[in-house]
Amino acid sequence: MAKGTISFDWITILIYLLLISFGWMNIYSASLGDAPSGIFDFNEIYGKQAIWIILGLFMIIIILSIEAKFYMKFSSVFYIITLVSILGLFAFGKTINGATSWYVFGGVSIQPAEFAKVGTTLALANYLGDIQTNIKLFSHQLKAFFIIVLPALIILPQPDAGSAMVYAAFLFPLYREGLSGIYLFLGFAGITVFILTLVLGPFYVAIAVVVVCLLSLLQKKRRRPKPLVILGIIIGAVALSYSVDYIFENVFEQRHRDRFNIVLGKEVDARGIGYNTNQSEIAIGSGGWLGKGWTEGTQTKGQFVPEQHTDYIFSTVGEEWGFLGTSLVVLLFMGLLFRLLFLAERQKSTFHRVYGYSLVGIMFIHFLVNIGMVTGIFPTVGIPLPFFSYGGSGLWGFTILLFIFIKLDSERMAF
Amino acid sequence: MRRLLLYIIIITTGFIFIGRLFYLQIVDDSFAGLSEDNAIKVVYDYPQRGYIFDRNGELLVSNQPSYDVMAIPRNIKPFDTAEFCSILKLTPEQLSKKLDKAKIYSPRLPSIIVPQLTKSEYAYLQEKMRKYPGFYIQKRSLRDYQTQNGSNVLGYIAEVNNKIIDENPYYISGDLIGKQGVEGQYEELLRGIKGVKYIQKDRFNRDIGPFKEGIFDTLPKKGKDVTLSIDAMLQAYGEKLMENKRGGIVAIEPATGEILSLVTAPSYDPALLVGRKRSANFTKFYNDTYSKPLYDRGLLAEYPPGSPFKTINALIALQEDVVDIHDKFSCNRGYVYGRGRKLGCHAHASPLDMIPGIAQSCNAYFANVYRRIIEKYPTPQEGIDTWAKHLNSFGLGEFLGYDLPAGRSGKIPTSEYYNKIYEYPTYKWFATATISNAIGQGEVLMTPIQLANMTATIANRGWFYTPHILKNIEGESISDPDYTKKNFTTIDSEHFIPVIEGMHQVYKVGTASALQIPGIEIAGKTGTAENFTKINGKRTQLTDHSIFIAFAPVDNPKIAIAVFVENGYWGGRYAGRIASLMIEKYLKNSISRKDMETWVLTHSLEDEYLKPLSGEPFSINK
Questions:
Q1: Domain count of chain B?
Q2: What is the pLDDT of residue A305?
């Protein structure tokens, strides 16, 4: 192919730049002290973030100038570096906010879990892109799961359940490549039963499952599931329901129970564990249509929302930019995800497509869990909003993840 | 499907989020209001309440600083309750009750927990305040009374109740408001307007500066200083004379309608209703149904006016042209009307024409005059209504419209009233059935201030300014047309000449001849009013009320006064003496007849008031 056909997807890059800039404006507001200093003041949170962003732009140039083949060829190496870096946390990691997730060099702390997604994505894309891999085979499914679950299992006990949960995103590329829908169905059904159990209790869930299954018997004979399958579903669902109840009451710690109960509206305790969510809702709710204006948010100034510049940055958007700002951010994310899906779908090679789907999946999970948490729909799980939340590691992790794909896309004709 | 799944999930999620945000930011407005914003603390800046001066510029009421302990319930963290209670002399139960109440009012707005600390309590607590997050001390100004008199005129200051808060959004819980008297009437003038500051807070409830550089803040506006028409010296003297008696004194400057003094007895020191002892004292006064210190007899008590009323009957008769001042009527110890019915009178020369008739207060004379007024018209109904209309023009039988929040309309009967009680047209009634009106007994009722205004109207020969207590606001004289426009009566001014001469003769030769003041020409009229009470459901007559009206000097009236002394027996006995002393005090600023003053000061009517409560038979008019 001629070099002239190589071009970067400028729509994606534009949305990226919009999100990064708007994100920084909100970080600036949320971390603004009494005496504003230069925007590149490394002693201030917004100053640090500005520097990460500028350095990130240089990094993008480097990523885009490396040939796409490089990422494909060395995907296994990246994966191994990833595993070593997150394993190394157990020996050299520093504990911040109760999680041993950081390396600290001088004044800079790095969270390897944010970069681990890149290595895992490359490794999964490489495995599925292999001409010998057939995802319909159980043994190959097992291998793929292994690639995904290994980093998740290392991250989980740090403890960083939020980051580990993100690895569920890899179900999307697997499904796209031919993994049976039953996995997604079982996952979805399991989550439904899980939540319903917490809301209604196992007894009613069991009755509901039996009723649904009996109703399915009314279908035409040809489409009717076999009685054994139905029995299996009933037993499985009821067992899950009761075990969820058991696990919830006996295995979960109180803080986990609290987080779920708040979202399910079972316990309202605005000053206690629900404080974060409540403050966040107050901040967003006080924004109204157009918000209070940039750096004019009273809740933001008063620092009522904990971790506002990181996981709760979206509440600053809500307070200062109102419904206009929040819906714009949601639409920007939807636009970015759609664009990336479109790009992923037009790839000719499996490696490229799996990489694209993984990227979309990961960003979507972050988007879903973060905004869901900040608006009080989801339990409190601490993961950042891509390109928005403060943090060099997160920013760079997502930037690398995204721009490798842009590079891959630009060279798609070559493969 | 494999290609579409993520699109569907992303779209669904996006719409759920936008819906949720729409709900949080637009639909649910529970987070919207500025005052409900937990990042903003609202601090009120209370201005100084206006000072109150008497007509001569003497300071009556000023302010003193006071300190309230406030709490914002949601900001309270666990604290050393025992220490807190011991500083404030509260029991833990009282404290938790107050905190509960504050929480119910609003968890985010401040409530008063302990009002009006003493200086030493404040000094001590101020040091420890940082140990009690959620509590703070608010400085406020309280009334400081420079006088022991005129509590009924001044009114008092109280904390607003929930009803006031609901009706008037200016007030919030714990605010003070003027009640009764001048404080109540001119609340908006005196209080000024409180300022408000919005302060940005952080999550530790620390102030981090003014919200939006203070663009929503307002400065307090100081209350206006007011000057009353009251003469503090005369007011104090009146209250002193009325000690151990019940009743009221109202003195008015006829030329202006300004109320010079408004005495009610018994009364109390206004300082008793300030500070933390306020509520205990108020409850004590409120529950005293026996002497009713909170009841302003000068404005609220409706008494039969008695003989002073005869002066108006004389005026009406002259205006209606039913009598000539030289027409004589004979009196044989009373006036006989109908079979065996007699309106009694005392011993005096007979027959009499108008001037001696007034001077001697002859009942028979006025019974004849009254009948002529009523019987001038074809029916007694028309007669009564014409008579009543003349009386209304004196401000009788209706609210006078003075600038104090308490009052009664008194009563002037009309044909409607008599038709009802005599069951007209089943039964007919005639002038004789209402004959008691001739002498100010019967159905006529007046408040002391109405009686004083009537006196001022006579002094003015036929007009009056509506009595008022406010003289000027920060040096600027009042311009309210209600108080600066003359009200003319329906009586021509020429008819006042013989009536005033009669009232002058009251002092010269008549019923008040013993009350003359050397060097001052006074016109007056005594009154003695029968009155009744119910004891165990039985109508029982009590000792007569002692009534007196007067104005002086006759040719250039400076003061018109009405005095009511409950159960003081005849007019000259208590009311006449008190009126005479008041006039002398006001016009000469000294008392020449010390023996009369001593008599009033040393005589008490407390025994008289105990009689109907004793449960035993008692004699009256002794």
A1: 2
A2: 77
**What pLDDT is attached to residue A415?**
55
Q: How many Å apart are CA A308 and CA A313, to the nearest integer? A: 5
Residues B372 and B466 reside in one and the same domain: yes
Tens-digit pLDDT profile for residues B209-251: 777 666 677 788 888 999 999 999 999 999 999 999 999 999 9
Binary contact (B21, A326; C-beta < 8 A): yes
Domain membership flag for residue B393: yes
CATH label of the domain that carries residue B85: 3.90.1310.10
What lies within 8 Å, CB to CB, of B512 at 6+ separation is B506, B524, B525, B526, B548, B550, B571, B572, B576, B580
> B8 touching A, CB under 8 A?
no
Length of chain B: 622
Please indicate if any CB of chain B lies within 8 Å of the CB of A335.
no
Give me the pLDDT at residue B111, please. Answer: 83
Please tell me whether residues B210 and B264 are part of one structural domain: no
Assess contact for B143 and B269: CB atoms under 8 A.
no
Segment A177-210, tens digit of pLDDT: 888 888 877 777 777 777 777 667 778 878 888 8
The answer as to whether B156 is a domain residue is yes
Report chain A's C-alpha Rg in angstroms.
23
Claim to verify: residue B377 and residue B444 sit in the same structural domain: yes
Residue B4 in any domain: the answer is no
In angstroms, the separation between the Cα of residue B296 and the nearest Cα of chain A is 53
- At A4 the pLDDT is 46
Spans of chain A below 50 pLDDT:
1-4, 268-271
CA pair distance B262, B448, nearest whole angstrom: 9
**Looking up tokens 């002037």, which residue turns up?**
B412
Rounded to a whole number, what is the distance in angstroms from the first to the last CA of chain B? 114
Low-confidence ranges of chain B (pLDDT < 70): 29-39, 202-206, 212-215, 339
Question: Which chain B residues contact residue A343 at CB under 8 A?
Answer: none
The domain limits of chain A are 3-179+274-414, 184-251
B13, part of any domain? no
The angle subtended at Cα A174 by Cα A171 and Cα A175, nearest 5°, is 85
> Does residue B151 sit in the same domain as residue B238?
no
Q: Which of B9, B17, B200 sits opposite A371 (nearest CB)?
A: B17
Q: How far is B100 from chain A (nearest CA, A)?
A: 18
Domain with B343 in it: what CATH number? 3.40.710.10
Q: Strands, DSSP E only, in B310-376?
A: 334-336, 342-344
- Same domain, yes or no, for B503 and B378? yes
Say which amino acid occupies B551: F
Q: Outline where DSSP puts E strands in A289-386.
A: none
pLDDT at B126: 82
What's the ipTM? Answer: 0.87
Cβ separation A286–B37 shorter than 8 A: yes
Contact B21 A284 (CB under 8 A): yes
CB contact under 8 A, A281 and B24: yes
Looking at the fold, whether B191 and B103 belong to one and the same domain comes out as yes
* pLDDT number for residue A20: 95
Report the C-alpha gap between A357 and A135 in whole angstroms.
15
Final residue belonging to a domain, choices B228, B250, B268: B228
Residues 188 through 227 of chain B touching chain A, CB cutoff 8 Å: 200-203, 208, 211-212
**Nearest Cα residue to B343 out of B311, B365, B322, B328:** B365
**Could you tell me if A357 lies within 8 Å of chain B, comparing CB atoms?**
yes
**Phi then psi dihedrals of residue A17, to 5 deg:** -65, -40
Same domain for B171 and B250?
A: no
Final residue in a domain of this structure, among B202, B228, B254: B228
Residues B189 and B270 in one domain: no
Q: Residue B491 is part of which domain span?
A: 232-613
Residue B351: cis peptide before it, omega within 30 degrees of 0:
yes
Tokens of A20: 């990064």
Which chain A residues have a beta carbon less than 8 Å from that of B203? 279, 302-304, 306
